[in-house]
Specification:
With 137 residues, the protein is of the alpha+beta class. It has one domain: 60s Ribosomal Protein L30, Chain: A (2-Layer Sandwich). The chain contains 5 helices and 5 strands. It has a 5-stranded mixed beta sheet with strand order 2-1-3-4-5. Helix 3 links the parallel strand 1 and strand 2.
């Protein structure tokens, strides 16, 4: 996975949604066995506002898929859901965020709380943060 410092330099600050994007990109690609950069297509359903949208920066960094290349598509939605498709094999998986993590995210009030929680998340295993909604279990 990309270093946290590299992600912070790209995004501009540390936050939990950035870290979750890092986890989801890496986890999704591994599950569908797709190569970084050009091996996957990702549809991101997410509320179209900050801090939720910060997930997209982490996702771009960890997956290599980007808005500029057009292999990430963002769909405005009420809940976070990412659909990964392996472009070669067509294998798919849909990921979400575990409820306990999502509940903590939604309760964060200050920037300091967000930074502290982002550091906690970064130390977790991806399957403690990410849940499979459809596809391989």
């Amino acid at each position: 996975m990309i270093s946290l410092n590299s992600a912070i330099k790209f995004h501009g600050h540390l936050g939990p949604w950035l870290v979750i994007g890092l986890f989801m990109g890496d986890y999704g690609l591994r599950k569908i066995k797709a190569k970084r950069y050009f091996g996957a297509q990702i549809a991101v359903s997410i509320p179209n506002k900050k801090p939720f949208s910060c997930l997209i920066d982490g996702l771009q960094l960890s997956s290599g898929c980007t808005l500029g290349k057009g292999n990430i598509r963002v769909i405005s939605a009420k809940q976070v859901k990412l659909r990964f498709t392996n472009k070669r094999t067509k294998k798919k998986i849909v990921l979400g965020i575990k409820n306990n993590i999502l509940n903590k995210l939604l309760k964060l009030k200050t920037h300091n709380d967000s930074v502290k929680f982002a550091k906690q998340i970064y130390k977790m295993k991806p399957n403690s943060v990410v849940k499979i909604l459809e596809g391989e279990n």
